[in-house]
Structure formats: structure tokens, C-alpha cells
Amino acid sequence: MATADAILEASRVSIVKGSKSFRSASRLFDPEVREDAWLLYAWCRACDDAIDGQDHGHGHEEITPEEQRRRLEDLYDQTRRALAGEPMADPTFAAFQRVAQRHHLPERWPLDLIDGFAMDVDHRQYRTIDDVMAYCWHVAGVVGVMMARVMGASDPEVLRRAQDLGLAFQLTNIARDVVEDAENGRVYLPADWLVEAGLKPTADAVADPANRARVHAVTTRLLKLAEPYYDSARDGLRGLPFRSSMAIAAARGVYREIGRKVRRRGPGVWARRVVVRKPMKLWLFGRGFLIAIWTQALDKGRVPPPRAALWTRV
Asked: What distances in angstroms separate CA 188 from CA 115, 170, 225, 232, one per listed residue?
């Protein structure tokens, strides 16, 4: 078995390789929360990479459907064994076991995440926005809930707002990566929205450069849908410890800016990957700090406004 320090170091390396935005935001956490966030991230990243044939979200290994299915079953098996407290030789699952046991994560949450990867293995088609939102729950909304638990949140209303932020993040990811996903045979835009825009709901149609304007119109619609989820998430910050609220406010600002860049740049946005540069990221981190102060100092004792009528699973 790997030592605790080796497990933590492997998790730290994973976030350094896999997510510049979350790595930067995680520095704002208290040390213990930061380490547990790294542990959970490393497991989520490794599960995703196993199914996609990637290395920390980069590259693309060709995997047969049979191998994908084998890897999926292995993820279910190792995750269940980790939750049951069996010794884990793989540092990734040892990391997950450590954070799951420390924070008493219900089995349904990590298994819901793997169910999301099963949707990719099954080449699920997303006919309506409700279908897309269900996918977003599995691959991101439930991660938001688990991260909130790591930060010490247990209030259902706070967990629901954490879910909303995960949903907003995934809607933004879909918009940013829509062409790349289509080139790999995956379409996460609602089929009925594509048909309304005059497009066939196929990967070839979404990837076709001739259709960029219509694809951009559909992704703009998706990003507008994400906005109330970002707004809802802000009202959950008051339920987190101060440094956690700073980190989450910073990450929220960076991801929201990615979506705004996709909208502003128009149909040519997918010529290169959308990123938030360091000066803007620093400004957003400063803004997140001010938002955290506001929510902790002025909002803390107040009843949060009612959550809007948004899609939910929590």
C-alpha cells in the first residue's frame, strides 16, 4: 500500500497536470480542506481518464468498446471496495478511500459519478435539455456536492447550491468543448435544440465547419441556461467556511468567464481552446475574495433567497 504522504503527493501531481483553474483556486482553501479536495479530484480525474483514454484530460488513446466496458466495471468494483474499507494498492483509490471515509460520503454519490461515465460508454443520446441536465448531474453536479461535503457542508440547501455550481461548470464545459467532443463522436447539446437550429443532431453535423454559426447559437442558448445556476451557487457561499467560500467564489468566476468568452468570440471561438489568462484570473480571484467577504459578513445571518425553479437531483 502507498503511504499517506505518497497518496497526497500523487493527488497533488494530478491536479497540477489536470486543472490549472481548480489548482489555483484550491490554494485558497484551509490546508486540510485543500488536501482532501486534491484527493477527491485525483480520483474523479483518474476515472474520467480511464474511460476517455486520456492522461489528465490530454491526448486520446483509441480504446475498443470492450476495453471501455472492462474499465468501467473495474471502476465500479474498485470504488465499492474502497468504500467498504478494503486495502487499496492503487494510490488513486487509496486517496478516494481516505477522503470518503473521513467525510462519510454516501455510496450513491461516487457511484452516480461512475454512472455518468457509463453514459459515455453507452453512447447515450441527449434528446432534450432534461437529458443533458441529468448527464451534467452525473459528471459534475454530484462532484460539487461531494466537494461541499469535504468543506464541511451538510445542510441540504447548501448542498443543492453546490450541485448548481457543478451543473453550471459542466454546461460551460460542453459549450467550450463542443467541436472537440463532436470530432470524437460525442454530442452533448440537446438534439431538439439542434433540430430547431436547422441541424441534424449528429456528431458530423456539429463538427462541420460550415455549421459553426448555428452551433454557436445553440451553445449560446446553453450558456444562458447556465447563468441562473451560477447565481444560485453564489447564495450557497454563506454556508461554507470563509476560506472555502473564497476558493469556490474564485473558481466560479473563472468558469463563468470561460462561458462569457465563448459567447463573445462568436462562431470562430473553437479555432483555439478558450482559457482565462493570468491577469484576468487574478482579477477574478480578487473579486471572489470580495464576494466571499460580502457573503460571510453581510449575508451570513440572513435567510438566503428562495432557490429559483431550476433542475435538481439533490
From this structure: 16, 10, 14, 23
